[in-house]
Design brief:
The protein is α/β, with parallel strands linked by helices. The chain is 40% helix and 20% strand. The strands form four sheets. Strands 3-2-4-5-6 form a five-stranded parallel beta sheet, with helices on both faces. Helix 5 (90-105) packs parallel to helix 9 (196-208) and helix 16 (292-298) packs across helix 17 (306-335).
């Protein structure tokens, strides 16, 4: 069964919105939209609405960043061999390319390697640790991994190899103690919204210095790609990264990335467009294991071999699509047998599944059914996979409560990776569900749709709708502004088009209307926009309206809390 959402609207504060609107010269509704996104004062609002290179904060406020940059400068001066090792997803890839190119530009002796999650799992593999102890490398930089690998880093230090970790994964108890752990989740520094590509950009900012802002800007395309692919919240410095970086992605100076944009028809500097068309091709190679072709396509001086690398990434993308379709069907068969009153966390598992596709599978299930999902690719000894959560549930905390049953795990509140031994699998499933049951209760399993405002149709006006476009780029942490409008007649003109009216005002609606009965009234959740100067409502949810005597009034205030 598909979980239907209840609607909840941000609590409104019209008086505070009026004050903020007066200082900014915007409509009070626009000010309320800013407040819904955590923007409550004039200075914050100006930075949010006008993100630029100049809005980037002091990089040395990120924990350990100054210490790590000092060590890098010494390595450059001494010509010490440096190895960058990164994760193989798009965040790790883009971060490692930025760091590799910046260090090379500054004269470092540097090389780069990426993980093969199929052969070595997530993070720094033990085989590479042993290889490094017999090599000339004296400085290792771990990118998008390493925070929770204390034993490996201790082993390297004992052999005279210093480590810098640049990572955004949440530190667990007993986290690693490298020479520098550049992780914003330590302490009270800035940058908690940043993914690893964003953190590496801050390292580059410190390495290049204030006098080389234009050189730094050349790396915003990769930082934007990593930020989008990792679904980082589009707030704080991520807004400046995307505002500067997305146009550079679609008009890239990097030959391989430019060819990839042409092949995938990625032409618009918009988050959804880039995510849907470009990132699946870059992610596909890593999901299958060997990410070399994707890494080389991202390099600024990639010229020779582009045709071969393009063919490899295209073939990998085709294979992952085929595998995902088959795995999704098999997972849905398992879900159809679940008793949802007991399955607070859905755990699907099967031998023969490709472990590189467990993340997308868990994400699809969590979105479809409105509850946390864990997908495991099983072999004879263990299950390796990923989990994705819902906003009300911290999945990483739940895995920490089960850590005695897990071989390894890590990640964030909403996305985790894990390995579980077969002999502990049944107990793990029971315990993680018990944890979710205690944390959520029955209410936590109700899928919710958070809406910005409840308005009458007459309050949908061009001025604030146009101003709301200034909140872009939209994505995680900054969704497109939505409204609840109640008691509308819906006159269907085609399966995807209707006229919405309250009896006085009429407006074009876009959505799925074919199942609606022609009589009666409806409440809708919609995104208002201007198309060729005309107001249009893109409707994402529709339900039967209560009789007017029972329905909450929206005429007495410019916005109010919606009822479920």
């Amino acid at each position: 069964m598909i979980m239907h959402a209840i609607w909840r609207v941000h609590p409104a504060d019209p008086q505070r919105a009026d004050r903020l609107a007066g200082g900014l010269g915007v409509d009070p509704i626009t000010a309320q939209l800013l407040m819904n996104r955590g923007i409550h004062d004039h200075e914050q609002a100006v930075r949010f609405l006008h993100p630029t290179l100049e809005t980037l904060g002091d990089p040395c406020r990120v924990p350990d960043l100054a210490q790590g940059v000092d060590r890098l400068k010494k390595a450059i001066a001494r010509r010490e061999p440096i190895l960058i090792f990164s994760d193989s997803d798009v965040d790790g890839l883009t971060a490692s390319v930025i760091l590799y190119e910046v260090l090379r530009e500054l004269g470092a002796v540097v090389r780069s390697r990426q993980s093969n999650r199929i052969a070595g799992g997530y993070g720094l593999p033990r085989t590479l640790v042993h290889q490094l102890t017999r090599s000339s490398t004296r400085l290792l930089i771990l990118v998008d991994c390493g925070t929770n690998q204390p034993e490996d880093i201790r082993c390297l230090r004992a052999k005279g190899i210093e480590t810098i970790v640049i990572d955004h994964h949440v530190p667990l108890d007993g986290w690693a103690q490298p020479h520098a752990l550049i992780n914003p989740h330590r302490g009270q520094g800035i940058g908690r919204e940043l993914c690893s590509a964003g953190l590496v950009l801050k390292v580059a900012q410190a390495l290049l210095g204030e006098g080389r802002r234009e050189r730094l800007a050349a790396y915003f395309d990769l930082a934007a790609l990593g930020t989008l692919a990792d679904c980082a919240p589009l707030v704080g410095e991520n807004r400046a990264i995307l505002a500067e970086g997305m146009p550079r992605v679609v008009r890239s100076h990097r030959p391989g990335l430019r060819r990839l944009c042409e092949a995938t028809r990625t032409y618009r500097p918009e988050p959804d467009h880039i995510l849907r068309r470009l990132t699946p091709h870059l992610n596909a190679s890593g999901r299958l294991g060997d990410v070399t072709a994707a890494w080389k396509l991202l390099l600024g001086d990639a010229d020779e071999g582009i045709d071969e690398w393009m063919a490899f990434t295209a073939a990998a993308h085709t294979v992952t699509k085929q595998l995902h379709r088959r795995i999704m069907v098999e997972a849905e068969e398992q879900v159809s047998r679940f008793h949802f009153r007991d399955q607070f966390v859905m755990v699907v598992k099967r031998q023969g599944w490709h472990q590189g596709l467990m993340g997308p599978l868990a994400a699809r299930l969590a979105e479809r059914y409105g509850r946390p999902a864990i997908a495991l690719a099983m072999d004879e000894r263990c299950g390796i996979g990923s989990g994705r959560s819902v906003p009300l549930f911290n999945l990483l905390d739940a895995l920490q409560a089960c850590q005695g049953l897990l071989v390894r795990f890590g990640g964030h509140a909403q996305a985790c990776g894990l390995t579980v031994d077969r002999k502990h699998l049944e107990e793990f499933c029971a315990r993680v569900n018990q944890r979710a049951r205690l944390a959520l209760g029955r209410e936590g399993l109700i899928k919710t749709r958070l809406v910005d405002l409840e308005l009458p149709l007459s309050a949908i006006q061009p001025r604030w709708v146009e101003e709301a476009e200034g909140l872009a780029p939209f994505g995680p942490g900054n969704p497109r502004p939505t409204v609840v409008i109640r008691h509308l007649a819906v006159i269907v003109t085609s399966p995807q088009t209707a006229t919405l009216t309250d009896g006085t005002k009429r407006m074009v609606g876009k959505g799925r209307f074919q199942a609606l009965a022609p009589e009666g009234y409806y409440d809708v959740v919609a995104v208002p926009s201007l198309k060729a100067g005309a107001l249009v409502l893109t409707v994402s949810d529709v339900r039967r309206a209560l009789p007017k005597a029972e329905a909450p009034s929206v005429e007495t205030a410019p916005w109010r809390l919606a009822q479920t």
